[in-house]
Amino acid sequence: MEWSMTEEEILKRIQTIFIDEFELEPDQLTREATIFEDLELDSLDAVDMVVALEKEFGVKVKNEESLRSIRTLDDLLQLILAIRDQMNTSDQKIPS
Amino acid sequence: MAGDNGVRLNRVVITGRGSVSPYGLGVKELVDSCWAGKSGVRYMDKWRSIKGLGSYLAAPVPPLDVKQLLPRVVRRTMGDMAVYATLAAQEAVQEAGFSKELLSSGKIGVSIGSTTGSPTEYDNLYQEFLPEQSIESIKSGMFFKIMGHSCAANVMAALKIKGEQWAPTSACTCSAQAIGLGYLLVSQGRQSAMICGGADEVHHSVTMVFDIIRAASHRNESPTLSPRPFDSSRDGVVCGGGSGILVLEDLDSALSRGAQIYGEITGFGHAGDPNHIANPSSEAMAGVMTAALREAGIENDKVDYINAHATGTEQGDLAEAEAIGSIVGPNVPVSSLKGHFGHTLGASGALESILILEMMQRNEILPTLNLENVDQGCKGINHITQITPSPVRTVVKNNFALGGVNVAIVFEQWSGA
Question: Are the C-beta atoms of residues B190 and B106 closer than 8 Å to each other?
Fold first, then answer.
């Protein structure tokens, strides 16, 4: 994981995951798009979203509380940014 | 038709057909290819690297543009066989003319089997899991691709069907059992229609099952000349893939909808053979043919055609020829369709039934492709070796499976009566 990535670069990677994994169109993937309503993902997709994020960013996203609070693509971006900041300020490899 | 207790049972007719076969998508492709005498068998070059495997033959479904055919939400839980079953079910339901409302009414159920869940997906799962003993990258759809009722469940979900869900998993008899079960459910009035059949897909792990027990064809140098049911030079099974689906419907329902009727099912013989888990039994085969004919109220000498299971194995073909001879003697036409497109296992009963219905419409009998010299032990019955004009009003359709499963179904031509 290149934790020097900018916010825009991380967002682009997340968007690419949604395009590849869920066959969505780029213009659907705004920061404000709600994952379960606007993008119509369901519980099975949510599992695959986590698997894809973990693979893409090389991290564990096991904190269920923070996952449950995610509604929009921007929420997801903020979660990854938080993990990035956490890893940049500590030696911790796996965020809690 | 009446049950043993005298209660009138519903008559069961066929009002829809759907096919995904080694010839491609659709019933027309299947029918045209078989009437043109085409073989669906090809050489599987990649299998040469599998240690110990001697059979490099199969009849796979040609590649499909699945992304264009099915939306992601239904596709994500499907292995190949569930894709085939869904596409065939869509075709059958469309032909039957069922509305979305009727499909979701609870009056229509599904009975679709396969030998196992998708072997390709089992392969993918363990390729992913075994190197690191890790499940971290396994996706949520995996279980739905490998579970035993993958085809039935995915068809129900894709077509929004709310009736009964059944998934007979008995290898070579999956779809024959599924059709028999649908016949029982409709005749007893539990469902007004059943979407019945089966599916399977080509994978080396399937062919190797037959190769391990010395029952797979090694005629690798001439793929289209194998399998050779009843032929003296037969050397075993060629596995195929696909899905066959029939819509079975209560006659009153079909008539009230003005549906086209392709034939009627009037008898279902079904029995186990506990004497040996692998070896076929001519007595058990004859037993289910007799039971099916008795249920249909048809005398043995009124049978116009026997559609044999015959896969091109040494023992199976001998036992079946003996069984058929004991039931209908030397004159009734007999053929096996395995010579055309191999043994599609869970799909075979339904794909072959679709061709029976076509034979009934045309009053022509398809031959056993690749049957050139009838084996000495398979003589005594009337083998058809070329397309033969002949009345096809009453047909006994056989399917038998490893594990001692024996099924015979009686189809009757629909004459509007």
Answer: no
Q: Which residues of chain B lie closer than 8 angstroms to A48, CB-CB?
A: 76, 139-141
Query: Is there a contact between A44 and B76 if contact means CB atoms under 8 Å apart?
Result: yes
Quick count: other Cβ atoms within 10 Å of Cβ A55?
A: 12
Closest residue in A to B75 (Cα–Cα): A22
In the predicted model, is pLDDT for residue B3 greater than 80?
A: no
**Which among B212, B239, B257 is the end of a domain?**
B257
Instruction: Quote the CA–CA distance of B183 and B10 in Å, as a whole number.
Output: 9
Confidence band (pLDDT; 50, 70, 90) for A96? very low
* pLDDT score of B416: 86
CATH code of B330's domain? 3.40.47.10
Interface test with B, best of A20, A44, A47, A54 (most B CBs within 10 A): A44
Record the pTM: 0.95
Q: Strand B263-272 and strand B12-21: pairing?
A: antiparallel
Q: How far apart are CA B293 and CA B78, in angstroms?
A: 38
Q: Kindly report, residue by residue over B66-112, the tens digit of the pLDDT.
A: 999 999 999 999 999 999 999 999 999 999 999 999 999 999 999 99
The alpha carbon of residue A71 is apart from the nearest alpha carbon of chain B, in Å, by 20
**A interface mutation test: which of B138, B139, B143 has the most A CBs within 10 A?**
B139
Long-range contacts formed by B101-105: CB under 8 A, 24+ apart: B103/B159, B103/B160, B103/B161, B103/B162, B104/B160, B104/B161, B104/B162, B105/B162, B105/B163
Place of tokens 């008559």: B11
Q: How many domains is chain B partitioned into structurally? A: 2
Find the mean pLDDT for residues B200-212. Answer: 97
User: Each residue of B77-90: pLDDT tens digit?
Assistant: 999 999 999 999 99
Question: Which chain B residue has the Cα nearest residue A22?
Answer: B72
Residue B1 lies in a domain: no
- Full domain range(s) for residue B343: 267-412
Residue pLDDT, tens place only, A18-61:
999 999 999 999 999 999 999 999 999 999 999 999 999 988 88
- Among the partner residues A40, A47, A54, nearest to B140 by beta-carbon distance: A47
Interchain proximity B77–A54, CB inside 8 Å: no
Taken in order B14, B399, B120, B340, is the CA torsion positive or negative? negative
**B385 in any annotated domain:** yes
